[in-house]
Amino acid sequence: MLFSYKAIVNNGEEKEGTIDAINVDLAIAALQRRDLVIVSIKEAGERTSFLKKNFNFSRGVPFKDIVILSRQVATLFEAQVSALKTFKMLATEAENPYLRGKLVILTDDIQSGVSISGAMTKHPEVFSDFYVNMVKAGEESGKLSQTFNYLADYLDRSYELNSKTKNALIYPAFVIGTFVVVMILMMTMVIPKLADVLKDSGQETPLYTKIVIGMSDFLVSFGPFILAALVLFGLYFWRTQYKKGGKEYIDKLKITVPFVKELYTKLYLSRIADNIDTMLTSGISAVRALEISASVVGNSIFEKILNQASRDVKGGISVSDSLHKHEEIPNIMIQMIKIGEETGELSFIMRTVAKFYKREVDNAVDTLVGLIEPILIVALGVGVAVLLSSILIPIYNIASTGF
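The structure assignment produced for this chain is given below.
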């Protein structure tokens, strides 16, 4: 929440500005820690549109900004810059206004004696449970600089993996969109005009031509209703993702639908292994590593599996035995984890597993894109050819008979 304030500094000069805080009490506390005497403070009277208010498009911090922030913190800590000076500097230089506001509050909390992890806990929309626990482990072990390096490396890997997966689907989505647009334009603009020529001729048209003309007439007559139905369905689908039952259903589809299940399953397995390796390396226990991985894996099915595994490990069962109960976890990963437990090198094994599945994700993406591209291009060409031939062949026949 943004507050505007008027305050007096030590030299008696009046100062105006804004501050981002959860509530007015925290805003006042943050300003007082800056040695400001508050004259007035109130919620900023910013007018927001309906979309901005209800869908919150402009708020939040992109994952890329967190990656850059972590790398900057790691670099400054390695240069022996104090935590307070580090976050003050980063708060001044942050380009994202939302992140800048959060870093200002973070700096004030650190200045007042709160630990870095404790200050970050207040901002879950910026720093995940995984992030906070990693920082806490670094504070407890005295290896905060090293921990931020681990975090920066991990986030770099995650960002690269997620970006490649998303970017790989951009071209197929573009081709599909082009295909749909071309088909709609032809059915609503080209086919009706050519169909008029056939109707005026009074000659019998083939069955496949009648089908195409019928589809065109239907699309012209009911196109707006179809579009409205698709928009409503899209909104329903979008809202379903934020409901528990709907999210579980979508997450289940991701790891069961042919062609994409291999990609998503390997993506989640790579993420799990990388999370656990990073946390074990930082000194976090296996139980806590499983719990935190469950909260950041990004799939409710694997989240349940990891939470159950965490409870089993608390009860004395090994990680490999607890994961063996779930068919979603492949045997090769279970066997590797078992070897890591027996040799005491679980972190190293998880790192190896993460690298293996990252390569598998890369290969799956390349294979999927390699298959989709020619199929879509051929489908686009065949679709256009079928539509045109169904109309042009009868017209050619009319012309050849001397109409």
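Interim note for the steering committee: The mean pLDDT is 80. Residues 203 and 398 are 8 Å apart (CA to CA).
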